[in-house]
Amino acid sequence: MKISRSPTTTSLDEYELMSDAKYRKYVQEIDRALKGFEYTSEWADLVNALGKLNKVLLNNVKYSVIPRRFTVGQRLAQTMHPALPSGVHLKALETYDLIFKCIGTDRLIQELSIYSNGLFPLLSHAAINVKPSLLEIYEKHFIPLGPRLK
């Protein structure tokens, strides 16, 4: 059950996790990783910022709730801009894959709108070397949702 869809509020699960010191540290690490997106001036900076975000996610796979998920989803969608090179898109797809593995299918159904903004439009302008990775994301994470999607 969501309290609100506002980026500044938290889900009930996240609220309960805030009593865990390790989760609070995870939130701080996500904040630092997201800060890296604010100071990008070229595409290599985006790859670096995505790498830092991936590292934070990998170090905290035990949590199925991604802190600052609205901001994370927004930043990932921005990295799917058609003007950016395929290397950025591929690195962002790695991040999406990590997130989807962390959150699981039940949470993905609830949060699909947060993460799909960048993924679905990418197919129409993705480079040929990006399309297999994108289709793999669809196949591994979205198709199994099947009839549960409404």
Please compute the radius of gyration using only Cα atoms.
15 Å
Number of helices: 6
Kindly state the percentage of residues in helix: 55-70%
N- and C-termini, Cα separation: 17 Å
What portion of residues belong to β-strands?
under 5%
Q: Outline the biggest β-sheet.
A: none
Shape verdict: globular
| N-to-C series of helices and strands | HHHHHH
State mean pLDDT (0 to 100 scale).
Answer: 91
Organism: Medioppia subpectinata
Keywords: Protein transport, Transport
Domain DOP1 N-terminal: 20-149
GO cellular component, one term: endosome
Structure commentary:
Pfam families: Dopey_N. The chain is an all-alpha fold. It has one domain (12-148). The protein has helices at residues 12-17, 21-38, 43-59, 69-78, 86-125, 131-142. α4 (69-78) crosses α5. The protein starts with 11 loop residues before the first helix and ends in an 8-residue tail after the last helix. Residues 1-9 have low confidence and may be disordered.
Q: What descriptive keywords fit this protein?
A:
150 residues, mainly alpha
Short description:
The chain is mostly helical and 150 residues long. It is globular and about 45 Å long.
Secondary-structure topology with pairs:
Layout: H1 12-17, H2 21-38, H3 43-59, H4 69-78, H5 86-125, H6 131-142
Helix pairs in contact: 2-3, 3-5, 4-5, 5-6
